[in-house]
Amino acid sequence: MRTVDLRSDTVTKPTLEMREAMARAEVGDDVLGEDPTVKRLEATAAAMIGKEAALFVASGTMGNQVAVLANTARGNEVIVDDQAHIFYYEVGAPAVLSAVQLRPVAGLHGPDALTLIKAAIRDKDNIHYPETTLLCLENTHNRGGGTVMTPEQMRDIYRLAKQYGLSVHVDGARIFNAAVALGRQPVEFARWCDSIMFCLSKGLGAPVGSMLAGSREFVDRARKYRKVLGGGMRQAGILAAAGLVALGSVDRLAEDHIHAKMLARSLAGVPGVQVDLDKVQTNIIVADVSGMGMTSDEFVSVLEERGVLAITFGPTLVRLVTHRDVSREDVEYAIEVINNIN
Ligand code: TLP
Questions:
Q1: Which secondary structure element, helix H or strand E, spans residue 309, and what is its range?
Q2: Which residues line ligand 1 (CB under 6 A)?
Q3: Residue nearest ligand 1's atom 8 by CA
């Protein structure tokens, strides 16, 4: 039986080209600043995203948490969407590592963003309040269903944040999906933030690694915090070599988006399954299966018995993600399974 793994784009395995580049990579001790391949990756990533510098980190979570460390002081408050990865899926790290308080706001990525952000920023003069110093956005928005925030929305939010002296960090784990979906350049998004993290190890297919980009001064500070977290890697050029290959494959994300739309349409046609097709903008599909009288666990098990892997996203929500290791034939097979689910 065929297995189609739609649990996440993190399951992608390195391509032969990546493995060959890894085998050939020139390396050195990166903690001493001597790994030429890491340096090349950091320079390439910075140029692609339009920031002065970039730092190679072990994971998206590490990139986000280094950014929170480098952008805040103990006791500060950080505004974040209540469904954001930083709040929802990073094990409470901002409290553990940065000793900051998160201010989760529902609807932060929606049409009322400016009003909601303004209302959440604390009055500096009130002795009872923590100081708001950082706002985090997520583009694309994972729990939002892979939805895209436009550069114009980001610009308006950034301008508001700057009026109040806040830094803006973007969890851009899938920022290239956003860029490809809108046919815009990654730099158009990244200019409206102080720091941005993006992942090499999701749709781009690298085995390990993410980048944290910002001003030279920010990245110098971030490098120290990465060391604090034990993220100073030595001959990391082996991994960076795969990352460089990954950065060359941004355009192919369009294929994943087409596949996601195909899958979403078939899911939407199953009686009892609800999918908001307007929200299927990139490679993520979130479906509500409550109308089938099933929990998401039950729905995922039924799919799994037929070789289609998905994950639960809530008691009745299921998430499916397309990626480079899912071919057109795999998508057609998954559609057949979905169409015969009853
Ligand atoms: N997301 C994973 C899970 O952790 C949920 C996934 O399967 O989607 N930001 C965003 C928006 C993410 O989606 C993820 C990973 C991360 C950060 C963290 O990246 P890693 O897994 O490299 O720490």
A1: strand 308-309
A2: 8, 10, 59-61, 64, 85, 89, 138, 142, 171, 173, 199, 201, 210
A3: 8
Q: What pLDDT digit, counting tens, does each position of 6-34 carry?
A: 999 999 999 999 999 999 999 999 999 99
Residue 171 CA to ligand 1 centre (angstroms): 9
Whether the full predicted model's pTM is greater than 0.85, yes or no, is yes
Mean pLDDT of the chain: 97
Fold of domain 16-248: Aspartate Aminotransferase; domain 2 (3.40.640)
State which fold the 252-339 domain adopts: Aspartate Aminotransferase, domain 1 (3.90.1150)
Taking the CA atoms of residue 176, residue 181, residue 185 and residue 189 in that order, the dihedral angle to the nearest 10 degrees is -70
- For the chain, the domains span 16-248, 252-339
For residue 53, what pLDDT is reported?
98
CB 53 within 8 A of CB 194: no
Joined together, the tokens standing for residue 340 give 């015969």
Per-residue pLDDT of 212-266, as tens digits, reads 999 999 999 999 999 999 999 999 999 999 999 999 999 999 999 999 999 999 9
The structure tokens listed for 111 are: 């049409």
Phi, psi of 174, rounded to the nearest 5 degrees: -120, 40
Q: What is the pLDDT of residue 135?
A: 98
Expressed in angstroms and rounded, the spacing between residue 199 Cα and the centre of ligand 1 is 9
Q: Contact 248/206 with Cβ under 8 angstroms?
A: no
Query: How far does the centroid of ligand 1 lie from the alpha carbon of residue 1, in Å?
Result: 29
